[in-house]
Structures are given as structure tokens and as C-alpha cells.
């Protein structure tokens, strides 16, 4: 028994000279219109949806379209109706014995409507543009897409770790989350919060990229931190003890005699990173030199003596 001839061009509402792009646009418009989820219980829409899928499967493929144009109703004789290049994993099952369309692999819709998730429908990759399949169609749970965001933490938080309350905003809503920051986390490190991404079954994950906030005292160089200590000239000459800041609080540091401006002194293990490979803190000496107008007569006399002046 022969297969009834169908005018695929008429089904899609395009001319026989239509380009691939015109065929694709016409198909997507009709697929959205007749999708069974948008027409529950409507057998005619279901059949129409089946027909336009069949038409598009042929007309989008150069070889099948050529055979169809040349052979007309006999083009499918002895041929298995399968997907063309790029659709090898898509499953089309037109089962007339059961009274209509029996299933479409949902990967097909991912390929067909995937670009909508990147701007057309405002959805994320992995979402089903029509919701779950109904009306006898196969159903497959769709995992919610992951979400990425950045958070700023202080250097103290990076060194010690702990919990932090953050507020994420998007889509006109705000979400408050309490996150755990591992001690020693690096700048650019990622935190994964399972199930805190876009909704789905299951929900996607939330990935937070950690950024070090600018610090009022310390500069960061990899895992090392640096700060400055200011000395009076006589402190630089004779040496002294100074309290200097660290990420764990102030410590007393011995400044060797004869320390010139720009000298770097190291405090081991007071930098960033995990306990097994923590960086150091470097303290740079800066010597404060008074202005002559700020000196008393007696002080000015001593400075001139040091300079060999009268």
C-alpha cells in the first residue's frame, strides 16, 4: 500500500523555491502554534504537528528535498524516515497504528528552540520552552540551569574563613543566602551551592566566584600581603620596636638599626592561602622626614649639625 502524498511546502506555507532559512522560520512558527501542550486534547493539532515535523525533516535536508522534488509521492519508497546530518540522536516515531504521533525525543526541542534560551524566550539552556510533555507524549525532567555570580570578601575573611550573609538580586527579586567561606580561599576561587540555581527537577546549582575586596591597609601579591611602617629618622638609625598590622591583629616587630627607606621585612605565615601553604606578610619601611618649618630652634640646630651646617 503506497504512502499518501503530502505537499510539504503547502504544509509549511512556503513556496517551492523557499530558502532553508525561510523553511526553518516557517517551521518554528507552526511548531509553536500546534504544539500539543498548547492544544491539549486537540487531535487535529496533534496530527498537524506531526505533519509539519515530517515536512521539515525532509525539506531541511538537501538530499531528501531533492528526492522529494524529483519523485513526488514515491520519494519515500524503500527509505527509512530518519533524521539528517546533525539530528542523528533525535527520535521521531510516527506510529499510525496507534492513531497518531507517539513521541519525540526532547533533545529535538533543545536543538530546535535552544537559541531562544539565549535571548528569544528569556529561558536558560536546559529549560523546556513548552513545559513538560503531556497528551500522551513522553515526559523527561529537565534540570534547572546553573547560575554564576561574584561576591567580594575581605582579606580577613579570606584568611580565617567563616560564614557570610549575601544578597543576590536578579529578575526583580532578591535572595538572601548564608554561605560558608573556607579558610584560605584564593581570589578567583569558586563556591558551589547545590540546588540554589534556576528551578527545575532537580534545581540547578549556584556558582559564586570569590573576589578580594580592596583593603585600606594591605596590598595583595599572590598569597603574600604587604603594608608599610613609618619610622622617624632616629628610629631608622638606631633601630626600634614597632606595632604593625597583620590579618590576625597587630604584632610587635623588631626594626633593625640602619633600616633605610624601602627596606622590606618579612613576617612568615601571615599572608593568605591554606594553612599548609600560607603566604607571608612583607612590611616596607618608610622614613618620615620633617619639614624645616615644623622644627623648633633647638631641633633645627641639631639637624644642621648633622648636615655639617652652622
Which key terms come to mind for this protein?
single chain; 310 residues; alpha+beta; Helix Hairpins; HSP40/DNAj peptide-binding domain; 3 domains; three-stranded mixed sheet; elongated
Quick structural summary:
The protein is an alpha+beta fold and 310 residues long.
Overall domain count = 3
Strand order of the largest sheet: 8-9-13-12
Major beta-sheet overview? 4 strands, mixed
Percentage of β-strand residues: 15-25%
- Tell me the CATH topology of the largest domain: Helix Hairpins
CATH class of the largest domain: Mainly Alpha
Described by the principal axes of the CA atoms, the overall outline is elongated
Radius of gyration: 36 Å
- What sequence of helices (H) and strands (E) makes up the elements? HHHHEEHEHEEEEEEHEEEEH
What structural category characterises the helix and strand content? Answer: alpha+beta
Instruction: Specify the helix fraction band.
Output: 10-25%
Number of helices: 8
- Parts with pLDDT < 50 across at least 5 consecutive residues: 78-139
CATH hierarchy: architecture of the largest domain: Orthogonal Bundle
CATH superfamily of the largest domain: DnaJ domain
What would you note in describing this structure?
The chain has 310 residues and is α+β, with helices and mostly antiparallel strands. The chain folds into 3 domains: 111 residues, Orthogonal Bundle (Helix Hairpins), CATH 1.10.287; 66 residues, Urease metallochaperone UreE, N-terminal domain (HSP40/DNAj peptide-binding domain, Sandwich); 75 residues, HSP40/DNAj peptide-binding domain (Sandwich), CATH 2.60.260.20. The chain is built from 8 helices and 13 strands.
Amino acid at each position: 500500500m503506497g504512502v499518501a502524498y503530502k505537499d510539504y511546502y503547502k504544509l509549511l506555507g512556503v513556496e517551492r523555491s523557499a530558502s532553508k532559512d525561510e523553511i526553518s522560520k516557517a517551521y518554528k512558527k507552526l511548531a509553536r502554534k500546534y504544539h500539543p501542550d498548547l492544544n491539549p486534547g486537540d487531535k487535529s493539532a496533534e496530527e498537524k504537528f506531526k505533519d509539519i515535523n515530517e515536512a521539515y525533516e525532509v525539506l531541511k535536508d538537501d538530499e531528501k528535498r531533492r528526492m522529494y522534488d524529483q519523485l513526488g509521492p514515491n520519494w519515500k519508497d524503500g527509505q527509512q524516515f530518519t533524521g539528517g546530518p546533525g539530528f542523528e540522536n533525535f527520535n521521531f516515531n510516527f506510529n499510525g497504528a496507534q492513531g497518531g504521533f507517539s513521541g519525540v525525543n526532547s533533545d529535538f526541542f533543545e536543538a530546535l528552540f535552544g537559541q531562544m534560551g539565549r535571548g528569544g524566550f528569556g529561558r536558560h539552556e536546559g529549560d523546556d520552552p513548552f513545559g513538560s510533555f503531556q497528551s500522551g507524549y513522553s515526559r523527561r525532567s529537565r534540570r534547572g540551569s546553573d547560575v554564576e555570580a561574584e561576591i567580594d570578601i575581605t582579606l580577613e575573611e579570606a584568611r580565617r574563613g567563616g560564614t557570610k550573609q549575601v544578597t543576590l538580586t536578579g529578575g526583580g527579586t532578591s535572595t538572601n543566602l548564608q554561605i560558608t567561606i573556607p579558610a584560605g580561599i584564593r581570589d578567583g576561587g569558586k563556591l558551589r551551592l547545590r540546588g540554589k540555581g534556576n528551578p527545575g527537577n532537580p534545581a540547578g546549582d549556584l556558582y559564586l566566584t570569590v573576589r578580594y575586596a580592596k583593603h585600606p591597609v594591605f596590598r595583595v601579591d599572590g598569597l603574600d600581603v604587604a603594608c608599610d611602617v613609618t619610622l622617624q629618622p632616629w628610629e631608622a638609625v638606631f633601630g626600634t620596636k614597632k606595632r604593625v598590622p597583620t590579618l590576625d591583629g597587630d604584632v610587635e616587630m623588631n626594626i633593625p638599626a640602619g633600616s633605610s627607606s624601602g627596606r622590606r621585612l618579612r613576617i612568615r605565615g601571615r599572608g593568605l592561602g591554606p594553612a599548609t601553604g600560607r603566604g607571608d606578610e612583607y612590611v616596607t619601611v618608610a622614613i618620615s622626614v620633617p619639614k624645616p618649618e615644623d622644627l623648633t630652634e633647638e631641633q633645627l640646630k641639631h639637624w644642621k649639625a648633622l648636615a655639617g651646617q652652622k
